[in-house]
């Protein structure tokens, strides 16, 4: 899965970089998504491979805090990028004549910076909230990487502040992103329904299929793992482990496969890129 995620997303990044035909807002956002997937994979890779390949069962506390911060930051970044991509689809379908003037390179760069800044600023207090807690219970984590819900359960002090802040971050970022993504697709459907031609209607909706699949691949596991962590205290341990692994490992694997399979421009660009390398 790591090989597929790293190679697939790196190929998409390279294709967008070298192919002039992909120098459009949609593919710039796709390259941001691929970058966040590569970063997420690299954030989990060291401890996962050490655990399963080298049987290394320990991690320094500060290293665990850094990994926790990076995993949650890149996850939030991916959520923001999916929201930006839904805005791209909304403008492309509902206001196609203004597409080039609304989504300029400066606007795209600004959205990318805002998504990145939001992730790091919002999650900056998280390591400090964990570090203030005394860890005097079992220091065994449930996963081969560090997550905030897993780490705060090791504390033998009041974790109300951590729990409230974690819920606030979840609702104000991931929750709002998902709400606005759903709203954008409601507006898209409303605009598409007034198109007289059934073929044109399907053609417009077909441009959204890849993004919808990417949204489902990201949010469904995330909602599952959040629900289990907060309300499934008596669920079997393997359920927690399975959902957390699906949440972190599946989206980086599926996203390049989804866009390569459903977007012919990406497929053509990848084929041309490899032909040039072969020559």
From TrEMBL:
<keyword id="KW-0807">Transducer</keyword>
<keyword id="KW-1003">Cell membrane</keyword>
<dbReference type="InterPro" id="IPR000276">
    <property type="entry name" value="GPCR_Rhodpsn"/>
</dbReference>
<keyword id="KW-0675">Receptor</keyword>
<dbReference type="GO" id="GO:0004930">
    <property type="term" value="F:G protein-coupled receptor activity"/>
</dbReference>
<keyword id="KW-0472">Membrane</keyword>
<keyword id="KW-0297">G-protein coupled receptor</keyword>
<dbReference type="GO" id="GO:0071396">
    <property type="term" value="P:cellular response to lipid"/>
</dbReference>
<dbReference type="GO" id="GO:0004984">
    <property type="term" value="F:olfactory receptor activity"/>
</dbReference>
<dbReference type="InterPro" id="IPR050402">
    <property type="entry name" value="OR51/52/56-like"/>
</dbReference>
<dbReference type="InterPro" id="IPR000725">
    <property type="entry name" value="Olfact_rcpt"/>
</dbReference>
<keyword id="KW-0552">Olfaction</keyword>
<dbReference type="GO" id="GO:0005886">
    <property type="term" value="C:plasma membrane"/>
</dbReference>
<dbReference type="Pfam" id="PF13853">
    <property type="entry name" value="7tm_4"/>
</dbReference>
<keyword id="KW-1133">Transmembrane helix</keyword>
<dbReference type="InterPro" id="IPR017452">
    <property type="entry name" value="GPCR_Rhodpsn_7TM"/>
</dbReference>
<keyword id="KW-0716">Sensory transduction</keyword>
<comment type="similarity">
    <text>Belongs to the G-protein coupled receptor 1 family.</text>
</comment>
<protein>
    <recommendedName>
        <fullName>Olfactory receptor</fullName>
    </recommendedName>
</protein>
<keyword id="KW-0812">Transmembrane</keyword>
């Amino acid at each position: 899965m790591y090989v597929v995620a790293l190679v697939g997303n790196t190929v998409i990044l390279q294709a967008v970089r070298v192919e002039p035909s992909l120098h459009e807002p949609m593919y710039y956002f796709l390259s941001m998504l691929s970058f966040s997937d590569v970063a997420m994979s690299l954030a989990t890779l060291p401890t996962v491979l050490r655990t399963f390949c080298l049987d290394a069962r320990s991690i320094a506390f500060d290293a665990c805090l850094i990994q926790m911060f990076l995993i949650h930051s890149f996850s939030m970044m991916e959520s923001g990028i999916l929201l930006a991509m839904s805005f791209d689809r909304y403008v492309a379908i509902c206001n196609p004549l203004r597409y080039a003037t609304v989504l300029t390179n400066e606007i795209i760069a600004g959205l990318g910076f805002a998504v990145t800044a939001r992730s790091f600023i919002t999650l900056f207090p998280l390591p400090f909230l964990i570090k203030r807690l005394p860890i005097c219970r079992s220091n065994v984590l449930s996963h081969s990487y560090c997550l905030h819900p897993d780490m705060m359960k090791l504390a033998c002090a009041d974790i109300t502040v951590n729990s409230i802040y974690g819920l606030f971050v979840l609702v104000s970022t991931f929750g709002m992103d998902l709400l606005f993504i759903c709203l954008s697709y409601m507006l898209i459907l409303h605009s598409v329904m007034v198109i007289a031609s059934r073929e044109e209607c399907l053609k417009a909706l077909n441009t959204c299929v890849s993004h919808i699949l990417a949204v489902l691949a990201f949010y469904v596991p995330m909602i599952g793992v959040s629900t289990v962590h907060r309300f499934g205290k008596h669920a079997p341990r393997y359920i927690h482990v399975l959902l957390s692994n699906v949440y972190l490992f599946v989206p980086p694997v599926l996203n390049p496969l989804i866009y390569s399979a459903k977007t012919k421009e990406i497929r053509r660009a990848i084929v041309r890129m490899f032909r040039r390398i072969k020559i």
